Amino acid sequence: MTKWSLSSDFSLIHNPSSVWSYGSKPTGYHVTGTLSLFTHLDPEPNDYGEIVAWFGRDTIWYTHWLGVYYNTKPTDFILKEPNTSTVAFTANGVAMHPGDDGRFSVVRFTAPKDGNYVLDTTFTHIHSCARHSGVYIIYNNLMTLWEIDLAGPKDSRSFKTTDKGIAVRANEPIDFIVGVGLDNVFYCDMTLARVDIHLLENQAEAPVIAGSIGFILGVIISAILFHIFFQYRENKQNININQSDMRLSTKCSYELKMISPIDLFLILIMKNRVKNYSLIGNRSLCDLLIY
Ligand SMILES: [Ca+2]
Fold first, then answer.
1. Cα-to-centroid distance, 143 and ligand 1 (Å)
2. C-alpha–C-alpha distance, residues 43 and 240, integer Å
């Protein structure tokens, strides 16, 4: 699988489930805090059982509000709270709400393998009484990819990476977080979270393959250039040797005609070359002179 959707993949049974985890982070603006997993999923207890939510151990419906909510119906659905406010869920929509003590609601995506991931997200206020909420996307529990304030009912903001995505290693998390926002109160912070993630196939392998091909081509081209260079140098040396042999041959012929055998013998003794005569074998006298 190379595509994931928070909505389509939503699990009513398991947490974590495949690449998704539902949980919370501590109070305050510590969006890089430790993730605590929610422990149980409950349906709305009154007349809206189609809406369910994952909560922590200390939370049930309409207590601390901290949770990840889900509309099980394939149609839009309006939930009326015990008070007069309403929450407008989209079909199979996932929503997040921070806690009354300021804890963050968190959906975590954990990368299944190394690669470039394209993130495509939209966060929307769906509480009729919405004021301010903070939305954050945090990479690897360290780097803030996006941070924005939603203000007022139906306010909606989107974040998308470039088509090249972002490089993520296997098992690194990307957290999608909703906090109480600039008003610093938790009322009416229900925020719809559409999160779609796409892994670009072969992005990690492509540079490696290209690099290998480039290296091999480099070696081949270098070998060809070295071969051409040495071939050129060898030819040049052969030409110089042939020219030298010709000069020596002409010179020897001329000198041998002009010198007597006795003088030649004396010259060889003076040059102290006669001791190597046995090694020289059948070489001509001209060869002995230039040896
Ligand atoms: Ca708020």
1. 23
2. 97
**Residue 274 DSSP symbol:** G
Strands (E), 126-203: 132-139, 143-151, 156-160, 166-168, 173-179, 191-200
What pTM, to 2 d.p., does this model score?
Answer: 0.71
Domain boundaries, the chain: 3-203, 207-290
CB 27 within 8 A of CB 179: no
Whether the CA torsion 273, 274, 278, 284 is positive or negative: it is positive
Q: In what order do the strands lie in the sheet with 173-179?
A: 36-37, 20-25, 104-110, 173-179, 132-139, 143-151
Nearest by Cα to 177 from 213, 141, 130: 141
CA distances from 240 to 235, 248, 250 (A): 9, 12, 15
Q: Which residues surround ligand 1, an ion (CB under 5 A)?
A: 132, 180-181, 183, 189
Res 83: pLDDT: 82
Structure letter (DSSP) for residue 266: H
How remote is the CA of residue 62 from the centroid of ligand 1, in Å? Answer: 16
Query: Residue 14: is its pLDDT beyond 50?
Result: yes
The matching CATH number, chosen from 2.40.30, 2.60.120, 2.60.40, 3.30.70, for 3-203 is: 2.60.120
Which DSSP string do the residues of 201-236 spell out, in sequence order?
TTTTHHHHHHHHHHHHHHHHHHHHHHHHHHHHHHHH
Residue 201 banded pLDDT, cuts 50, 70, 90: confident
Residue given tokens 């009912």 in the structure block: 153
pLDDT of residue 214: 59
Amino acid present at 219 = V
Interval 75-110: pLDDT, tens: 999 999 988 899 999 999 999 999 999 999 999 999
List the end-to-end C-alpha distance of the chain, in Å, as a whole number. 80
Ligand 1 centroid distance, CA of 151 (Å): 9
